[in-house]
TrEMBL record:
It is found in: Cell inner membrane. GO terms for cellular component: ATP-binding cassette (ABC) transporter complex, substrate-binding subunit-containing. The keyword Nuclease does not apply. Gene3D superfamilies: 2.40.50.100, Nucleic acid-binding proteins, P-loop containing nucleotide triphosphate hydrolases. PROSITE patterns: ABC_TRANSPORTER_1, ABC_TRANSPORTER_2. InterPro entries: AAA+_ATPase (IPR003593), ABC_transporter-like_ATP-bd (IPR003439), ABC_transporter-like_CS (IPR017871), ABC_transpr_MalK-like (IPR015855), ABC_transpr_MalK/UgpC-like (IPR047641), Mo/tungstate-bd_C_term_dom (IPR008995), NA-bd_OB-fold (IPR012340), P-loop_NTPase (IPR027417). This is ABC transporter ATP-binding protein. It comes from Martelella lutilitoris. Its main location: membrane. Residues 4-234 form the ABC transporter domain. Keywords: ATP-binding, Nucleotide-binding, Transport. GO terms for molecular function: ABC-type transporter activity; ATP binding; ATP hydrolysis activity.
Amino acid sequence: MSSVAIENLDIRYGSVHVVKSLDLEIKDGEFLVLLGPSGCGKSTLLNAIGGLTDVSGGKIHFNDKDVTWVDPKDRGIGMVFQSYALYPTMSVERNMSFGLKIAGVPKAEIEKKVKWAAELLQITHLLDRKPSALSGGQRQRVAIGRALVRDADIFLFDEPLSNLDAKLRAELRLEIKKLHKALGSTMIYVTHDQIEALTLADRIAVMKDGIIQQLDTPLNVYNKPANEFVGTFLGSPAMNKIAGAFATENGGIAFKSGNFSLDVSAYPFVEPVQDGQKATLGLRPEHLRLAHAGEAAWSGTVSLVEPMGSDILAWSDFDGITLSHRLSQEEHCDVGEPVSVTADVKKASFFEENTGARL
């Protein structure tokens, strides 16, 4: 097994600074997901770890070995890409074994490795087929199997499921999760899909503009985003945002935006907030609920209803502020109906106006 340590890594393409003084430690046997929008540098970082991209500065270590300038073939890695990159004229068995044959691995050992990987990925019955006779999910399993037979300590996945439909993505997410549990290998996985990140990762590194914005467990990244970008990037539908300011009120403190007011006296701020301090309130739809009789609530009008299967997503207007909120299947509202909602303030997020940092 291997750990990965990245120190002060810089990657430039001419005047474009893609990865900026990045430090990252990946534990032995960890499943780390690099998550972010297109162009954030996540795939470039993964390619640098794999040796496919030259770095402009910094170091990459596997365990205690400096591999910054080591050839990809000598790094002991297995890579799975968005494109299956299978040889169309070769059978599944030959696609999986070809690299080992080139490396001069004995035939008996090759057969043993291919059989093991095929059984693990449940593709034994496909070994004689060619890629054209396989579904997308089967082709990606073959691509994963080709990486597995290398006996790698570190596996790199670059958006391997993005070409598949929703059902296949869900199935292969489960297979990859099982694979990690079975192998115990270090896995680094690039995606822009937050569902993949939240379901697969031990830790998530959220990236923007070549910088890691937050590195934490999926629950902490989702529930306690380090800044406004992380809070709004994760979540579907996106986190509700309300710009406003804090105000002292009746011996406590409230967050106000026009006629909108939320008592935040019980909120666990990192540092005390000041009267008049501007901020952005972030509330996820599931942290809003229909108010009971007698509760302090915001009154509005339902403007859109979206049935989601397990629950219902409603969009309602509260004096010019539109908020999305979830309803159970038993709760019902129609467009144009009045609605009263309340929020779980302890699950809210507040972000500083200028920097976007969590308060």
